[in-house]
Amino acid sequence: MNSVPTQLSASTRSPWLILLVIGFWSLLGLLYLSSLTLNAQQFDTTFRLTSKTFFGTQLVFLNWSFVTFFVFWLMERSLIGERSKAVGVKGRSGRVTLSAMLLVVALIWIPYLLVADGLIGDWMFDRGRRTPLEVLLRTDYFSVFFVGILYLLICVAGLGLAYSKRWRLERERTLELNQRDARYRMELSDLHMQLLKSQLSPHFLFNSLGSVSALARSAPRSQIIDTVQAIGDLLRYALTTSTERTVSLDAEIGFTQNYVQLQSLRFDDRFEFKLDNQVQAHTSCPPFMLQTLVENAFVHGVEQSSDHTRIIARIAISADRLLVEVTNDRPSSVRSADGLGIAMNNLKRRLDLQFDQQATCVGRADGPWYRACVSIPLDVLNDE
To answer: Which residues are within 8 A (CB) of 86 and not within 5 positions of it... i.e. 6 or more apart?
Structure first.
């Protein structure tokens, strides 16, 4: 019982805890010596403060440091687990096991301390030498009660320390799991967005090549060359922005205008496109956002009607949100049900992933018009 277990956990071997425990019991020993000295001066007892009484008293209280370390180690090993560093024993069986071990320690420690205290007292006060059994048999009940109370307080302190570390480890593990989960969700979101973007480029290429195919039947050679060059410029933008979460609004507008110019070669004067941009420069937006809304107007408006189709794009900021709305004439042959096409659904899924469902993408029929609108909070947009 005079030695601390060699395989103490990391926290019970920490320097601050060792110094704290030894310092506490040493200070308690000094206070005990001070009380004996004051009593001797006041009541003229036989106690005298000498080197033997000083070191003997400190030796008695040093024994309490050993049992404190042992109880702390036992609590931590049982409640936390030395290998798993997580929650150790649980349930009724675990508590019964721990209580039994603490009881065994008490049955060994209390008699040992009483004997050690008596033998050290004999040495300090030059009393006759007694055997350990004689010391134990002549111990009063008050001493047993006092030692038992101190041991119980040590157990309570060890229990508090173990549960404090258990709570701290559980909190750290929860934070680690939350961070890992957030990192995995972000990685999955990025992969999903890359997949959606990779689906967008072939979709745009297919529509663009359809325009070239239509021109190849009747257009002059120079016009076909210019169209292929325009497609190359558009695809270059698609490739350079495939890894970007946001682009400048000016770049997206330029890309969309090139797309509209390409479509004008295919549809001649069957449509009219107007852009009303009320947003200042240096504003960012997700790539393909405006172009997808305009493309939706061509696919479900211009291509479905033989009449002249008006397409109006409006960009503004309202209530700290970026608003992008594209309105087009709705052909009478198209059903009036609201909804989103493939490209619009693709855009909506990208916005949900990128802005954690804080952005909206809606499409609805509004009398003779069809309106497609994207709304993004500026604060989440600026964080990108």
So the answer is: 80, 169, 170, 173
pLDDT above 50 (res 279): yes
Give the contacts of 237 (CB within 8 A, at least 6 positions apart).
251, 255
Reduce the DSSP state of residue 252 to 3 states and report it: helix
**pLDDT exceeds cutoff 60 at 219:** yes
Query: Which whole-number Å values give the CA distances from 250 to 169, 218, 283, 284, 322, in the listed order?
Result: 50, 34, 8, 8, 14
Is the confidence at residue 208, as pLDDT, over 70? no
* Integer Cα distance of 37 and 54 in angstroms: 11
| 314: Cα within 13 Å, side-chain hemisphere | 12
Q: What DSSP designation does 214 have?
A: H
Characterise 59 by phi-psi region: left (phi > 0), alpha (psi -120 to 50), beta (else).
alpha
Model pTM score:
0.51
Long-range contacts of 362-367 (CB under 8 A, 24+ apart): 363/296, 363/338, 363/339, 364/338, 365/330, 365/336, 365/337, 365/338, 366/327
pLDDT at position 133, please?
85
pLDDT 10s digits, 190-199: 656 565 555 5
Residue 1: burial class (beta carbons within 10 Å; 0-12, 13-18, 19+): middle
Q: 316 in the Ramachandran plot: left (φ > 0), alpha (ψ -120 to 50) or beta?
A: beta
- Sheet containing 309-318: give its strands across: 271-277, 309-318, 321-329, 369-377, 360-366
Q: What is the pLDDT of residues 242-265, one digit of tens each?
A: 678 889 999 999 989 988 888 887
Q: What's phi and psi for 282, nearest 5 deg? A: 70, 20
Instruction: Note the pLDDT tens digit of each residue in 143-182.
Output: 888 888 888 988 888 888 888 888 888 888 888 888 877 7
Q: Which two tokens stand for residue 15?
A: 């320097």
Residue of 228, 280, 277 whose CA lies nearest to 256: 277
- End-to-end CA distance of the chain: give it in Å, rounded: 62
